[in-house]
Amino acid sequence: MIATPDIALATRADTQSIALLSRDEIEQGLRWAWTSRRVRRAIEDRNTNVIVARDGTSVIGFAMMKYRSVDAHLLLLAVAPNHRRKGIATALLAWLEETLRIAGIAMIQVEVRASNHVAQAFYAKLGYEQVHATSRYYQGIETALHLVKELHRSDT
Fold first, then answer.
1. Residue 51 and residue 89: Cα distance in Å, rounded?
2. Which residues pair with residue 107 across a beta bridge?
């Protein structure tokens, strides 16, 4: 665990770093879907938060969440390989979950590749539960596990 990483809303200048991290760490074996153009649209979408963790000026992790009226969908979450296991992904999710609580949203959902056992263990540790699976979800190639987490209001 490192000191709390510097987390902030992504800017247009972050689009290429986010897109490359998605391509290299999330989308391997699939067609590259989260290109810079698509990431930029997400950053500009008022119903989506794209946040980054930085080490100085470098993007070392990011998360992207789409907000709906009663729930939220975690679209993407990635941390650069040389920065993993330092609490960065947990800090990114904590930032987003606090935002959800403030907005009064009580549930978050995410999909994970069935073959990604590390991600499944990570989400399970944070209280996510599998609710179902969809075969050939990822570009007709791989099964997705659908996970949800019920959020509780923090007592402040």
1. 11
2. 71, 150
Burial of 30 from C-beta contacts in 10 A (0-12 / 13-18 / 19+) = middle
Does the pLDDT at position 30 exceed 60?
yes
Domains, the chain, ordered by start: 6-150 (3.40.630.30)
What are the structure tokens assigned to 86, written together?
């330092």
Helix/strand/coil for 24 = helix
Q: Does residue 137 register a pLDDT over 90?
A: no
Q: Note the maximum CA span of the chain.
A: 45
Alpha helical stretches, state H, 10-87: 15-25, 36-44
The model carries a pTM of 0.89
pLDDT 10s digits, 85-98: 999 999 999 999 99
Burial (CB < 10 A; 0-12, 13-18, 19+), residue 35, is: middle
Which pairs count as long-range contacts for 39-42, CB under 8 Å and 24+ apart, including other chains? 39/10, 39/15, 39/64, 40/12, 40/15, 42/75
What the block records as the tokens of 73 is 């969908």
